[in-house]
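Appendix B. Chain record.
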Amino acid sequence: MTLRTALASVLRHEDLNFLLTNRIPRRLATRFMGWFSRVEHPLVSRASLAVWRAFADLRLDEAEKREFRSIHDCFTRALKPGARTVDADPAVLASPCDAIVGASGAIAGTTVFQAKGFPYAIEDLLGSAAAAEPYRDGCYVTLRLTASMYHRFHAPHDLVVEEVTYIAGDTWNVNPIALARIERLFCRNERAAIRTRLAASGHPLTLVPVAAILVASMRLHCLDVLLHAGHRGANVFRRNAPYAKGQEMGWFEHGSTIIVFAPRGFTLCARAGSVIRMGEPLLRLP
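Structure tokens predicted for this chain:
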């Protein structure tokens, strides 16, 4: 039995997985990882990458770089040109990231599910009833990025970012085991609600990157600040930032989750439980 297989076997035990990934000092662990991941020393980076490869399916053949100065450098890696193909159909919203498709489907009023039996209100996630109203009876899809995936996210269509609302919070793990145990988990964690409008049709679309343990920070190209647990200052940023379909919008410092909300009339192209790559069809416009 390989080390990776042995670890996977241990972590499949739900009680132990939950204990190891949540019942620890989450903020302290997250701050430590933020510091350690930026240590630029050849021995540290090579050893850390070797451990990472032993425990996860880390594939770097698509990466633009061959060598990484630090773990953070690897976490936030760019891909080689042409590594992803963005669906050119104007009726399709492309996936903004590589991910596993989680809870998704129709929105009941303004209520959605993070897991079976665990509903939450969109207004709690986005920060206000006004922000949730455009998605009443619409549809949503949860995209979970694992630690070894490509961590950058891109515009799913030609759009304009109108507003970013940063909401401070906790750093619970967002894996399926935690989602099935912690009520309103996404509404508890740190997150940024990115309110956009599609350039051609005018439809609203909101993307919500949600932070998690070891990943309480994210970088958005339309902002000149890093959003993280220690951020102080305005938490609502009004913008008029245009993006072309497939253009990079930002990245996580590690793996986490992006939840996409679309208004009534949009339909899902992706199936829950499937693996989707950035640029592949995610939603279809009315």
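Further analysis of this model is presented in Appendix C.
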